[in-house]
Write a structure and sequence with these properties.
Elements: H1 2-13, H2 22-32, E1 38-43, E2 49-51, E3 57-65, E4 71-79, E5 89-98, E6 108-113, E7 118-127, E8 130-140, E9 149-150, E10 153-159, E11 162-164, E12 167-168, E13 175-182, E14 191-199, E15 205-212, E16 223-230, E17 241-244, E18 259-266, E19 273-279, E20 305-311, E21 322-323, H3 325-328, E22 335-338, E23 344-345, E24 351-358, E25 366-373, E26 381-382, E27 387-388, E28 390-397, E29 403-409, E30 416-420, E31 428-429, E32 445-453, E33 456-466, E34 475-480, E35 492-496, E36 502-510, E37 513-519, E38 525-531, H4 532-536
Parallel strand pairs: 1-12, 2-13
Antiparallel strand pairs: 1-3, 3-8, 4-7, 4-10, 5-6, 5-8, 9-13, 10-11, 13-38, 14-15, 15-16, 16-17, 18-19, 19-20, 20-21, 22-24, 23-24, 24-25, 25-26, 25-27, 28-29, 29-30, 30-31, 32-33, 33-34, 34-35, 36-37, 37-38
Helix pairs in contact: 1-2
Length: 538
């Protein structure tokens, strides 16, 4: 009796007494531990919904049951508020993953359902004590538009313990629609990696990448350079073309004739397209960036080779491989390779391609620089190293005509940034060198965008990378309006918070859009498209 009065008094103090005394009873049960407790949380993970994917997790619902209650869930109710066009969704399926917060499509609840403004899934799934995870997965209609978005919220859950209204931990979030450009085992290839994206003189999107045929590992392995081509701004992509394959050169098997790290540049004046890659011959178990995986000199089988193929018909057909090693590499260097990114063309027609290499054996002997062609790709010259201890890089021209080189940094988890005013003969550190843009030690992308605002010509820089110093997650797009001196958080756009491999590559799709390919959490290679209006709005 004394305990009952004490709990009632506590309930009154908390202001939860109603005229019938019902809330007193609930409070008393809760405080005494006599009644099971159940709660629910709804969350939309940040990543795109991808065309060509069978599953795309729109919403995760977590039901937490305490006190060992024996209970089950009856219904889940969702609404699709925030979805631009319901017809973009082909079907929706609810899955249970038990106490694991990792998605798996192995345990479906009910049958897939067609899209509707509100959806109910019926269930008799038993709830275990602790956390229980459920996932609403979406399959897109093949006609879904890249400019639109998908969203879903869990509005209520009926359980044997009562009706729940889940707390929404991602209010207002909407998934962008993208394309699973390349996936595991597409065309029998184990892994696709290292994309570089460009736009041809005719407006065709061209994405080159590693086709790692047997396994996910880097050179030395059976790797060819593939190309995906889109004539309609990324909406559809033609079948893959293999544009660089060294076959069984020297009588060695394909796994000892791998090509990797493609870079691409388009001459907008002539329409010609150049793709570069690094080729290793022999040296099984070695890697061109480590120890004697590549050596000084020019000899095939000892030094990794700098290769090029070209297209004069908008990327439809490609030339036989040309070996540029003796033209470009200094004999004392241990390695010279293209940076796996897009090059740029200056207003006077000069082509500027980022390159990388190493001039010694130790881990920090890496360097980054640019190579220049003033005769539309007939010949190339390599500049002086901009920074030692960095490698993969991308170049842009700044407002004053200088060229900025933004580099992966092997010293610490900040981007290295240098500027040249004489086409790579001399370099000076930028104000943001090793102190502003963070990275997890990974390739990144940098792109200059010219546009008009209030009748005035302006430009901005776009930067994409995994925006963290810990792992290749939080794939993010940033914008700078002052030639890279500042990157305001108001213009940080998180694309994918999940674990991927990074390696983004940006290109101008047309007058109103920018495209990106990156290695995200939902596919080996992901393509997304953004309007300039969204990216540049202030």
């Amino acid at each position: 009796m004394h305990t009952y009065q004490g709990l009632g008094f506590i309930a009154m103090i908390l202001g939860i007494v109603d005229p019938t005394g019902g809330q007193v009873t609930k409070a008393m049960d809760s405080l005494a531990g006599g009644a099971p407790k159940v709660s629910a949380v709804s969350l939309q993970p940040v990543h795109p919904m991808l065309l060509r994917n069978e599953h795309g997790t729109v919403t995760r619902v977590m039901i937490d049951v305490t006190d060992g209650a024996d209970s089950f869930v009856k219904t889940f109710n969702f609404n699709l508020v925030g979805t631009d066009t319901l017809g973009d969704i082909e079907s929706l399926t609810l899955y249970s993953t038990g106490d694991s917060d990792k998605f798996s499509p192995s345990m479906a609840i009910g049958e897939p359902t067609r899209h509707a403004a509100t959806i109910t899934f019926h269930s008799e799934r038993r709830l275990k004590s602790g956390r229980n995870f459920f996932w609403l997965s979406c399959r897109l209609n093949p006609s879904a538009e890249l400019s639109r978005r998908v969203a879903a919220t869990c509005t209520s859950v009926e359980t044997s313990l009562g009706r729940l209204t889940p707390r929404n931990d991602s209010p207002g979030f909407r998934h962008r629609i993208g394309v699973a450009l390349r996936k595991h085992q597409d065309d029998g290839v184990h892994t696709y990696r290292i994309p570089a994206l460009a736009t041809s003189a005719k407006g065709t999107l061209l994405c080159v990448y590693d086709m790692r045929r047997r396994m996910g590992r880097d050179l030395q392995e059976d790797i060819d350079i593939g190309l995906s081509r889109s004539p309609d701004g990324g909406r559809t992509w033609e079948p893959v073309r293999v544009i660089l394959d060294m076959g069984m050169y020297g009588g060695l098997p394909p796994e000892q004739n791998g090509c990797s790290d493609p870079g691409i540049i388009v001459d907008k004046h002539t329409g010609e397209i150049f793709c570069f890659a690094v080729w290793m011959n022999g040296k099984p178990g070695k890697h061109q960036w480590n120890d004697d995986g590549s050596e000084p000199g020019f000899e095939i089988g000892k030094s990794a080779q700098f290769m090029m193929v070209r297209s004069r018909d908008d990327g439809i057909t490609w030339s036989k491989p040309e070996n540029l090693t003796r033209q470009l590499k200094r004999e004392a260097w241990w390695l010279l390779a293209p940076s796996p990114q897009q090059g740029i063309q200056l207003p006077d027609g000069k082509l500027v391609m980022p390159v990388e290499g190493r001039d010694g054996r130790d881990a920090l002997s890496t360097f980054a620089t640019i190579m220049i062609s003033g005769d539309h790709g007939a010949t190339w010259t390599v500049g002086q190293p901009a920074f030692r201890g960095g490698n993969e890089c991308q170049a842009v021209q700044l407002g004053d005509g200088s060229i900025m080189l933004n580099m992966r940094n092997d010293h610490e988890r900040f981007r290295a940034v240098f500027v040249t005013r004489d086409l790579g003969q001399t370099w000076e550190p930028h104000a943001t060198h090793r102190n502003t843009l963070i990275e997890p030690n990974c390739n990144a992308s940098l792109l200059r965008i010219d546009y008009y605002a209030v009748g005035e010509k302006r430009h901005a820089l776009l930067f994409a990378n995994p925006n963290t110093q810990k792992g290749r997650t939080h794939h993010t797009l940033q914008v700078s309006f002052d030639d890279g001196r500042t990157w305001p958080k108001s213009h940080h756009l998180l694309l994918d918070e999940g674990q991927g491999a990074g390696y983004p590559s940006l290109t101008r799709v047309d007058d109103r859009h920018v495209g990106i390919v990156y290695e995200g959490s939902q596919s080996h290679l992901v393509f997304e498209k953004f309007s300039l209006e969204e990216l540049l709005k202030r």
